[in-house]
Automatic annotation (TrEMBL), chain A:
Entry protein name: Calcineurin-like EF-hand protein 2
Subcellular location: Cell membrane; Cytoplasm; Nucleus
Domain EF-hand, chain residue ranges per copy: 14-49, 97-132, 138-173
One GO BP: protein transport
Automatic annotation (TrEMBL), chain B:
GO biological process, one term: sodium ion import across plasma membrane
Record domain Sodium/hydrogen exchanger regulatory region: where: 580-666
Residue intervals passing through the bilayer: 12-29, 100-124, 136-153, 165-188, 200-219, 231-253, 274-295, 315-337, 387-408, 428-449, 455-478
UniProt biased composition (Basic and acidic residues): 796-816
GO function terms (MF aspect): potassium:proton antiporter activity; sodium:proton antiporter activity
Pfam families on file: Na_H_Exchanger (PF00999), NEXCaM_BD (PF16644)
Topology in membrane: Multi-pass membrane protein
Protein family: Belongs to the monovalent cation:proton antiporter 1 (CPA1) transporter (TC 2.A.36) family.
Name recorded for this polypeptide: Sodium/hydrogen exchanger
Length: 182, 902
């Protein structure tokens, strides 16, 4: 199984060991899977404005549990990209590639999974991130502006392509990599 | 001299006193201090100094003098005070015009002023003040600086990079010392320079002096251009720890340098000593750090001396380490790092602030003085100039630093998560300025060193060269080379938002991974800390106490802040408000938006740069935000529970005004039934000092009168007006609201002390039916003792005429005393707590949506509304108020609402 992990998620056995420890620590009552409540017990996440969304990202549609396999798979997104790794032409896109990191971020916005960040979705995120100091109007003008900026096809929403283009200059590999998973 | 002795005997006197007395020692004793060891001076009994004896020989026969001048008596402290003032004024001067300090580091400017002053002194009376010529520097001047740096060390990044920091600090310094020393020795063998008489030991000693980096100026620059955190923390930590290394090395070498012959055994003994010195310092640091933490456990009833323990214990650590000739810098650094965490949880918020302020103040003062004196000393000391030696020193100092950084990074890089790239290495190497430590150490050199004066000159040249040339050029160079930064450049708004989202995501992911277990021992330590240390050292140790305690502290702080001066982050208000009106986005607005985003987004813990400003106190806005968030979430839950929100709000600026239709069609106001009146008059007394949640307002609306402490009042009153409108829609007889404030409330604003918010309480009464259609909010100060009886009196007052009689004089008084009372109130209550009013505003809006007919409101205010802005100090906040008419309190000079006429 370790081999499987290594192959698919490009994580090392040491990672897996460490993550498994953490998984067990989070798993209250040794169920063998994690529930949203388990994540909720992480204190720091409570103060994270998008904590709920991050937790939500671990659970695929309609599911209430996440097993260790999926847990690692999600976390593997945040592995720093290894430039030296020999690229095998036949290997699929690695899970920690720029594009999958971006997709992960995109899905944090796109809660209804329609492939677009609508104005409302953007507003929701903005509201949680800037809640207290800003009026609704300001929020809305920021959201409008954001969409205006990124929206290329004029559908008043940001598609994944547009999202990617707007972040072209950002060092995603660095931004979306956790040192922990190095 | 004896001043410093007495200070040593009585170590409990404060640092500031020590500083002053040190300087007295410095000014007094150019002659013999150097030869005196610290131990020798302590033995001498305190005797009258010449200055004191000069006072007495007045003949007894003279008549009683009517007017005398006794300058010698006060001379020493007087001159010291003047020196400090002069340096401080210089500092003020530089900061008046901000552009200077951007391009030229402050240390350069201070040295320049010092040079000028030194020149004047040299020209005037030829006898320079003996500054920094004694090891008193190490007893009184260095501790504040080190304490400052270590107390404000960003803990988390430091421990994440601790390996690299120590690697550079210890190995790097050794490398520099050895390299410079040996190569200078090589240079000395050149016949032409005529320096044959400097032997290897002396060269090494000199090299150890010269290898201490002190990049104050660089840190300021790095902070300013927000360089990447890793580089910053390594430079920061390196300069802190290599001071310790250098001093230890210096002590060993100065001993070795005086030895006639050095054997192999001595080399090993020296190494062993080096280790002992370091570890010993560490030990005493821990010891006194824990002692300080443990002591503050019991200071709950003596809050006023709490900050004292921090200073005394860290100073004690320093002195005791010095006593055993251990690394005192190491001791004080460890002490500060150890106790900070526990002490800050134990002490009161106010003490915590005091500690930070005093630490920062003393540190800054010492640093300022040192650079200032450096300038003075440059002019006034005897120099021995040798071109060859000095130029080679400069060259080697630079070359070995650069080499060292490159070689050491090559070794450490494989162990780092984010390796240093070439540009980082350049920043690290070029940031190796020399500073205060070199300066002090070189003056400490024993007189029997042959080339003492040459060493002094060479050191001063190196310091001046690095501080001026490198210090000034590092900003353009780093900017030009585009060294990695923590990016704060203006991108598109998309980038800004998405990046922040990503940061939150990573923070969340790391939380899920348990980021503190990054290092195994760190995890272990945390457990140990939770199980043992916290129980012993922290008074109030409960489960999750860190968070709960933080909240408690923050709540208190926040309550105090509501009374205090406006926090700085409100400066953003005017620009934010400008934003609202325009719907198409000109370029300037884009900037505003960026500002808005970058300023207001909730900052996550780890990814935000945790720089501690060298020049300013760190602000705790971040923690405050946590608190605010919590309050918001409380509000949120409240809102969700009792007034479920159905739709996204539409844009209505004046939603909280009742619809005109309602107003016009309203039947003449009828008095509410007696039963409801009784309900409304039921008093509720709140415990003083507790934060009144939003629910207070609802209680107020239900019960109509509450006793509040001033802080609670301040928070609550802002929300009361629009809530009363909700009330009006429920009962249908209130049209507008106003409040009257007793003149006494004016003092609320000025009060900072604990007295007001703790002892004074306020009775707050909502009069739903005073007048025909107005809601009056009545405030009356209650003394703590009589509050209950007063309240009963109030609650029994149910007759309207009585109420009105009660109202009239008060209002008149208010009008008369408006110059004194209204202005501060307006500012204190309405001007500053922006965030609360924002949320409150939104809150009111969301409520009003559920009112029948609340959706379509004319944007104009009804006649009863006071239209002119309140008297405000800042134009910005006035603007701010203008846009929120429903927020404005009733203005006594404005058009009276019908409610107040009768």
């Amino acid at each position: 199984q370790t081999y499987l992990f290594q192959y698919t998620f490009a994580v090392t056995p040491a990672h897996i060991k460490r993550l498994y420890k953490r998984f067990q620590a989070l798993d209250k009552g040794n169920k063998g899977y994690l529930s949203p409540q388990d994540f909720g017990s992480v204190k720091e996440l409570a103060t994270n404005p998008i904590g709920d969304r991050i937790i939500g990202a671990f659970f695929s549609q309609g599911q209430e549990t996440v097993d260790f396999h999926s847990f690692v798979r999600i976390l593997a997104h945040f592995r720093p990209l290894d430039k030296n790794r020999a690229k095998r032409p036949d290997s699929p896109e690695p899970i920690n590639s720029r594009i999958s990191k971006l997709r992960f971020a995109f899905q944090l916005y796109d809660q209804d999974n329609d492939g677009k960040i609508s104005r409302d979705e953007l507003l929701q995120v903005l509201r949680t991130m800037l809640e207290m100091q800003v009026t609704e109007e300001q929020l809305e003008s920021i959201a409008d502006r954001t969409i205006q900026e990124a929206d290329l096809d004029g559908d008043n929403a940001i598609s994944f392509d547009e999202f990617r283009k707007s972040l072209e200059k950002v060092n995603i590999e660095h931004k979306m990599s956790s040192r922990f998973l190095h | 001299m004896d001043d410093s002795i007495s200070c040593k005997c009585n170590w409990t006197s404060k640092y500031l006193v020590c500083l002053v007395i040190f300087l007295s020692g410095a000014l007094w004793s150019s002659r013999d201090v150097l030869s005196n060891a610290a131990g020798a001076t302590t033995k001498a009994p305190p005797v009258n100094s010449p200055a004191w004896t000069q006072v007495s020989p007045k003949p007894q026969t003279q008549p009683l003098p009517v007017f005398t001048i006794n300058y010698p008596r006060i001379q020493v402290p007087f001159e010291i005070t003047l020196w400090i003032l002069l340096a401080s004024f210089a500092k003020i001067g530089f900061n008046m015009y901000h552009k200077i300090t951007i391009w030229i580091p402050e240390s350069c400017l201070l040295i320049s002023v010092g040079l000028v002053v030194g020149g004047i002194m040299y020209a005037v009376h030829g006898m320079p003040p003996a500054v920094l010529t004694s090891n008193v520097f190490f007893l009184y001047m260095l501790p504040p600086i080190v304490l400052d740096s270590s107390y404000f060390m960003p803990t988390r990044p430091f421990f994440e990079n601790v390996g690299t920091v120590l690697w550079f600090a210890v190995v790097g310094t050794l490398w520099n010392s050895l390299g410079i020393g040996v190569s200078l020795y090589g240079v000395c063998q050149i016949e032409a320079l005529g320096l044959k008489d400097i032997n290897l030991q002396e060269n090494l000693l000199f090299a150890s002096i010269i290898s201490a980096v002190d990049p104050v100026a660089v840190l300021a620059v790095f902070e300013d251009i927000s360089i990447n955190e890793q580089l910053y923390i390594v430079v920061f930590g390196e300069c802190l720890f290599n001071d310790a290394v250098t001093v230890a090395l210096y002590n060993i070498l100065s001993f070795v340098a005086t030895m006639p012959e050095v054997e192999t055994v001595d080399v090993f003994l020296g190494m062993a000593r080096f280790v002992v010195v370091g570890l010993g310092g560490l030990f005493f640091g821990f010891l006194f750090g824990f002692a300080a933490a443990f002591t503050t456990r019991f200071t709950a009833h003596v809050r006023e001396i709490e900050p004292f323990f921090v200073f005394m214990f860290s100073y004690l650590a320093y002195l005791v380490a010095e006593l055993f000739s251990l690394s005192s810098i190491m001791a004080i650094v460890t002490c500060a790092l150890t106790m900070k965490y526990y002490v800050e949880e134990n002490v009161a918020q106010r003490s915590c602030t005091t500690i930070r302020h005093v630490v920062k103040m003393l540190g800054t003062m010492s640093e300022t003085l040192i650079f200032f004196f450096l300038g003075v000393a440059t002019i006034t000391t005897d120099h021995e100039w040798n071109w060859g030696y000095i130029l080679f020193t400069l060259l080697f100092a630079f070359v070995w630093r650069a080499l060292g950084v490159f070689v050491l990074t090559q070794i450490i890089n494989p162990f780092r998560t984010i390796p240093f790239n070439f540009k980082d290495q350049f920043g690290l190497a070029y940031g190796g300025l020399r500073g205060a430590i070199c300066f002090a150490l070189v003056f400490l050199l024993p007189q029997n060193i042959t080339c003492r004066n040459l060493f002094i000159t060479a050191t001063i040249v190196v310091i001046l060269f690095t501080v001026f040339i490198q210090g000034i050029s590092i900003r353009p160079l780093v900017e030009c080379m585009k060294v990695r930064r923590t990016n704060r450049k203006l991108g598109t708004i998309n980038v800004e938002i998405h990046k922040r989202l990503m940061e939150h995501t990573i923070a969340g992911i790391e939380d899920i991974c348990g980021q503190w277990s990054h290092y195994y021992w760190k995890d272990k330590f945390k457990k140990f800390n939770d199980r043992v240390l916290r129980k012993i050292l922290i008074r109030d140790n409960r489960a999750e106490s860190s968070i709960v305690a933080l909240y408690k502290k923050l709540e208190l702080q926040n309550a105090l802040e509501l009374l205090g001066p406006a926090p700085s982050d409100l400066s953003a208000a005017p620009s934010l408000m400008d934003l609202q009106t325009k719907r198409n986005f000109p370029a300037s607005d884009l900037r505003n938006m960026h500002e808005l985003l970058s300023k207001n987004m909730y900052k996550i813990r780890q990814r935000t740069v945790e720089y501690t400003k060298k020049s300013a106190l760190p602000n705790d806005s971040k923690v405050r935000e946590i608190l605010i968030r919590r309050h918001i979430s409380i509000r949120h839950s409240f809102r969700v529970g009792s007034f479920p929100r159905t739709g996204v709000s539409k844009r209505h600026r004046f939603l909280s005004l009742p619809p005109r239709k309602n107003m016009e069609s309203r039947s003449p106001p009828s008095r509410p039934s007696y039963t409801s009146e009784n309900l409304l008059r039921a008093p509720i007394i709140f415990r003083h000092g507790t934060w009144i949640p939003v629910a207070t307002l609802d209680l107020l609306i239900l019960c109509s009168s509450i006793v509040l402490s001033a802080a609670e009042l301040n928070n609550t009153i802002k929300q009361i007006i629009f809530r009363s409108r909700l009330f009006s829609t429920l009962f249908g007889f209130v049209r507008s609201a106003s409040y009257t404030l007793p003149p006494g409330l004016a003092s609320l604003d000025n009060a900072e002390g604990p007295g007001l918010e703790d002892k004074q309480s306020w009775k707050m009464t909502l009069h739903p039916c005073s007048g025909s259609r107005g809601t009056d909010l009545e405030l009356e100060p209650l003394s703590a003792t009589s509050s209950v009886s007063q309240l009963q009196r109030f609650s029994s007052r149910q007759e309207r005429p009585l109420q009105n009689r009660y109202h009239q004089p008060e209002r008149r008084e208010h009008e008369l005393g408006q110059q004194t009372s209204r202005e501060p109130i307006a500012e204190g209550l309405w001007g500053q707590p922006q965030r609360d009013s924002w949320t409150a505003h939104r809150y009111s809006r969301s409520r009003d949506e559920h009112r029948p007919g609340g959706g379509n409101l004319p944007p104009s205010a009804p006649t009863g509304w006071a239209q002119e802005p309140l008297i405000q100090k800042g134009g910005g906040s006035q603007n701010h108020l203008n846009r929120r008419p429903h927020w404005r309190p009733h203005n006594p000079h404005g058009p009276q609402s019908p409610g107040q006429v009768d």
